[in-house]
Write a structure and sequence with these properties.
- The chain is mainly alpha-helical and about 150 residues long.
- It is built from five helices and no strands.
- α2 (about 20-45) packs antiparallel against α3 (about 55-95), α3 (about 55-95) crosses α4 (about 100-115) and α4 packs antiparallel against α5.
Length: about 150
């Protein structure tokens, strides 16, 4: 159960090095992507939408899912999001930055750039942030004791 501890444990003080961060995030995205694909394929096989407008197809899918399934999907997405932001905060702490505070700042900057400049520029900020997380060495921003 070490993976559950990595994903959901140590919300305030945990750290995560570069390689484990990469593999945990990649695994989380793979599982999430597989779940989404299974849902999409399942809906595609069971819900004919040929000849419908996009709005009609969207409504048909919503009707096919029902409120209980939609609620479960939202809860599962929330669990995946919590695991992802926890791992990002841990990786930020591993670099010597305050985890949650830095994450909130990056989300705010990305949102402002997306809103005021363009969504593509916000995506570029997001890519730069991910690359920085992957390549910044541990304790790079830690205070030096002198």
């Amino acid at each position: 159960m070490k993976i559950l501890h990595t994903l959901f444990g140590n919300l305030r003080h945990g750290t995560l090095h570069r390689a484990p961060f990469f593999w945990h995030i990649a695994g989380l995205w793979a599982v999430g992507g597989a779940a989404v694909m299974a849902i999409v394929v399942g809906l595609g096989l069971n819900q004919p939408t040929e000849g419908m407008t996009p709005e009609q197809a969207d409504q048909a899918v919503r009707d096919a899912l029902g409120p209980v399934v939609r609620t479960v999907l939202v809860l599962v997405a929330a669990v995946f999001l919590l695991a992802q932001v926890n791992m990002i905060a841990k990786r930020l702490r591993d670099t010597g930055l305050p985890g949650w505070l830095t994450l909130v700042a990056v989300v705010a900057v990305t949102g402002l750039v997306s809103g005021f400049i363009s969504p593509a520029a916000g995506g570029l900020v997001n890519i730069v942030f991910w690359l920085a997380l992957l390549f910044t060495p541990p304790r790079a921003f830690a205070r030096r004791r002198g």
